[in-house]
Hints:
Blueprint: H1 3-19, H2 33-36, H3 38-68, H4 75-106, H5 124-140, H6 147-159, H7 162-171, E1 192-194, E2 211-216, H8 220-223, H9 226-235, E3 237-241, E4 261-265, E5 277-279, E6 284-286, E7 293-295, E8 301-304, E9 316-318, E10 324-326
Antiparallel strand pairs: 1-2, 2-3, 3-4, 5-6, 6-7, 7-8, 9-10
Helix pairs in contact: 3-4, 3-6, 3-7
Amino acid sequence: MNDNQHSTELGDAQNRDVDRFDDPGLPEHRHRRADSDPAADKRAERQVVILFLISIIGTVASIVAYFVFRPDGTTDGVRISTLSLGLGMAFALLGIGLAAVHWAKTLMNDTEVTEERHEQRTPDAEREIAVQKLSDGAADSGIARRGVLKGAALSALAIFPLTIAVPLVSSVGGDWNVSKFRHTRWDKGTRLAIDPTGRLIKAADVTIGSVFHVIPDATEEERESHAWITEKAKAVVLVVRLDPRDLKEAEDRKDWSHDGIVAYSKICTHVGCPVALYEQQTHHLLCPCHQSTFDIADGAKVVFGPAKRPLPQLPISVDDEGYLVAKSDFHEPVGPSYWERLK
Length: 343
């Protein structure tokens, strides 16, 4: 007997064994206390209502927090504002979620139902039956005869979008000065500092193949301010040192680097993700969000991905003490394109 015959006979034997087992059916249904005790049923309904009320309170608290805890220009102010908004929205969503689960587990019918599988396209008559079952399910949920619960559920669901809509609407007419994207904190003579410690960098610290995440030098007081957070987001830079022989520099940018050290914006020109994955052998810089790839050795030009323009280069040199300094701000806007910049 060959292997194929043996496998076939073994499969037939297994199928015969399966045919010998009777369908065990569903286990005995265990009734919940709320199914037979009106007091327990009423108590479960009150619990669901309370959960929806928690959601409503969370929504109201989120809106109040938005207006009361406005950022005051400090890091602590931003932290408190974000925390209060987040807690309000968390209770708003948590209340709705827990109420829906508790409603389904305690008040809705939990009788097990089985149906045989059919072809995907069922006859029209069975479709009508399915629609009727949906109607029966809605009736079984008891929402029609539980007025308080229905009111709490609808109220929680109706006002929750306000946690998102109020901040959005209140921001209309805000600061739309896009010229801010054209300038950063970098200026002539600004020293390069390691992010986030703020330690200054000397050219001698940067060896071939090494990478530094860099921000403009600033005082400790400046780094604690809310304004600094905004400015830092635009000014983050990646510093890399290559063998000068590997650099392909345009004639008008030959003095933008120092002995193979180049500095480019970390903000991807696609949608603004942080570009920070450097491949030493190819000199390629990868954006982890959408895989845009830039060639650091060739002006950070795009070699792959959806980005449409190179990363802006920061002109650098060294000062009398050997520290790396900026020669100017970026010569073009950083980050992705916007309506005043199509490329």
